Amino acid sequence: MLLIHLHTKDLYQTFSFGDKVNLLDNTNASYNPANGIINDNEAVLMLVSVNPQDANNPSVKSLVVNDRFALSNKVNQMLNDPNIVKQSLSRNDKIEFITKKLYNEYGHNHAKFLETFKDFGISMYDYYQPNANSTGEWRKATTAILNNQSVILYLPDGYCN
Predict the structure, then answer these.
(1) CA-CA to 100 of 20 to 30 Å: which in 91, 94, 138, 157?
(2) C-alpha dihedral over 73, 75, 81, 87, to 10 degrees?
């Protein structure tokens, strides 16, 4: 299952909490034991957004579900935690509230995003194309600590399937 969507310049340049809920909902909707389950690494949400470094070359990222049960548990924990969001809100209002709250915490910082969602059973990949004449590649994003700062690292080509 592949979902693709756009974020305009006025929205998030990384995945939002709502995007993870969308990925989870579509993964669950596609699950049918009679036809076989969706295997981990087969549910993907792709995001195309404005690239702040190069407006003519959009940023393309993808989230891959590695563990749909972990994703489901973590999303539902957040939606049902009264310390995070008012329980009297509708599900959509909870998602919108949490999305805005988390955006205020990590904004466009991909390293902070990865740290925030490290236990959600998902991986983030970045499509990298050094120039218009080269073939691009998908690189898995991970984080490391450098000078007490969380920084993003990309694993070499060939690591992702």
Answers:
(1) 138
(2) -120
